[in-house]
Amino acid sequence: MKNRVTGLGGFFFKTEDPKGLKNWYGKHLGLPVDDYDCTF
Fold it and tell me: Which pTM does this prediction carry?
C-alpha cells in the first residue's frame, strides 16, 4: 500500500482586519481567496 496525503489541517487566525489579511494571502502567497475563506 502506498502512502498518500488525504487531507490537510487548517489554520485560523484572529485579526481586526480580515479583509486585509485575505488580501495579503492572495498577494504574497498566491492563494485564491473569496468573501469567505481560502480554498486550495
Answer: 0.54
pLDDT in tens, 3-40: 887 776 777 778 899 889 888 888 998 888 887 776 65
What are residue 33's DSSP bridge partners?
38
38: phi then psi, degrees, rounded to nearest 5: -125, 125
Q: Are the CB atoms for 33 and 26 separated by under 8 Å? A: yes
Whether the Cβ atoms of residue 29 and residue 23 lie closer than 8 Å to each other: no
Gap between the Cα atoms of 8 and 13, Å rounded: 16
